[in-house]
Write a sequence for this structure.
């Protein structure tokens, strides 16, 4: 049992946009996780292109390379920080497809089972990403992940950051960073 190693986390933005408020929000949480002692690997979904999941394709061709690489990353890490935008009161289709593809079990089991997660989201509306986060929590739980209770929802995300990528609301910046720090603490206590 490795008791002296740092918690290893993935940081995944569910938006494909380079200037996404969720990408900026994730950066704040990653800083909080690193300050708390985690090793964090940031993942760009554009580096993992995947066609929409179709079981016929999966049975014929097996797992695509991008999905296999994503699974290997999850197996190698203790958990993940997710920042996901809300599209039509739900998760973005591309992000959900990544979860669907990577969740296919093989001889090694599920790459999500027993891992820890923290969720956050920004939306362009005043409601934040609350509906999306509720759905996200249910999906990750069903996949076998332990989702910490702390989460962060950012309303009006397009106007929430200064040109340097910092949240204009200092309290919000502190809360978002605290989500990353809390995930690190939970992993340190419970994962090893």
């Amino acid at each position: 049992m490795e008791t002296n190693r740092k918690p290893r986390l993935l940081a995944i933005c569910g938006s494909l946009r380079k200037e996404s408020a969720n990408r900026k929000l994730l950066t704040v949480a990653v800083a909080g996780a690193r300050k708390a002692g985690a090793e964090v690997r940031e993942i760009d979904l554009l580096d993992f292109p995947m066609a929409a999941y179709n079981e016929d394709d999966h049975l014929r061709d097996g797992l695509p390379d991008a999905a296999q690489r994503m699974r290997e990353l999850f197996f190698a890490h203790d958990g993940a920080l997710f920042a996901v935008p809300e599209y039509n009161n739900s998760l973005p289709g591309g992000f959900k497809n990544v979860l669907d593809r990577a969740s296919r079990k093989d001889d090694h089991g599920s790459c999500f089972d027993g891992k820890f997660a923290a969720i956050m989201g920004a939306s362009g509306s005043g409601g934040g990403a609350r509906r999306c986060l509720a759905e996200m929590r249910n999906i990750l739980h069903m996949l076998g992940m332990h989702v910490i209770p702390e989460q962060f929802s950012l309303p009006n995300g397009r106007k929430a950051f200064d040109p340097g990528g910092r949240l204009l609301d200092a309290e919000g910046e502190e809360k978002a960073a605290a989500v990353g720090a809390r995930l690190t603490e939970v992993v340190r206590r419970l994962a090893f």
